């Protein structure tokens, strides 16, 4: 009986002292960034080629899309409903990443990014968050923004002044 107790004790000590990094699969940042870039590039291409199912497959069931209009904050179901007519007509959007920065958290399960995009609106900025689940990266949150040169901000503010005040008035009520 003492031998069995000693063996069990030794096994418990061995397993409790094992370096957890040896148990947890190590994250290879270059591979993860490449996988994330593939997801995002395919996602943009699926919009350009109006591949509705593939486009939305890249997004999680809890995904949020924030558009350029102040009123555009959609969960994935609302965004599907908004987007469907464009995809059906074969006229969705065509965004091409010009530059992208990708960052990973320490366990390699969450990534965030910012990207410059060449779009029909001119240069835009996209940013967002992806989550890795079951070895698959899914877009959890995406924000599309127009870029405004600093020299032109006063002009843009004048153009937006009336609509912004109406939006805020309605939003607050």
UniProtKB/TrEMBL annotation:
Source domain of life: Bacteria
Database matches in Pfam families: SnoaL_3 (PF13474)
InterPro entries given in the database record: NTF2-like_dom_sf (IPR032710), SnoaL-like (IPR037401)
Domain SnoaL-like positions: 36-148
Signal peptide stretch: none
Name by which UniProt lists this protein: Nuclear transport factor 2 family protein
Upper taxonomic lineage: Bacteria, Pseudomonadati, Bacteroidota, Flavobacteriia, Flavobacteriales
